[in-house]
Amino acid sequence: MRVAIAGAGAVGRSIAGELLENGHEVLLIDKAPTAISVERVPMAEWLLADACEITSLDEAALQRCNVVIAATGDDKVNLVVSLLAKTEYGVPRVVARVNNPKNEWLFNESWGVDVAVSTPRLMSALVEEAVSVGDLVRLLRFSHGDANLVELTLPEESALAGIQVGDVEWPEDTSLVTIIRGTRVLTPSTEDSLEAGDELLFVAAQAREEQLEDLLSARRTDAAR
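Structure tokens predicted for Trk system potassium uptake protein TrkA (225 residues):
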């Protein structure tokens, strides 16, 4: 997979390093000469250019990229890069960094953004996840379809503990994508049983989040114990 990253600061370089370790091709783009640190990510391609300029993106051959990540520290730049990537080059997947939470509402499909990543939101989500078993935590917002990546740690008293995934009547527009059980990451099958303490990751429509939380947090009745 070929990935272009606009913004070669600490965030962009960190993302590039992870992607390269996973075998992907990475192009880092930055207009600041001081940001071009080839020795820090030597396996990446580097381009000294303004990612908001069409001529720069032509030089980057953005049309060959499977993913574009707008990772600069300027929300205006990230929005422009996202819009150009999607509308001018037809990039299938555009991920944008949100620096100011007040601007998060702008990062949607109208600006070409498929996934908006807000660091403050992620940090607060991690804090909430660490202290709240049984509460739904929103980790990421996907622009298309008004869906979110959400997490819930199954409480000990949940009515679903011990129930097979295929026997659960999940809400519409909801998909269980991963079960994290201790150090294991499981791709759920219909035969897998849910266990108390499982960290469950879902892609769910925002309108279904409350229904999903109620389902997962529902307590067993005395008769069912």
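The chain has a mean pLDDT of 87.
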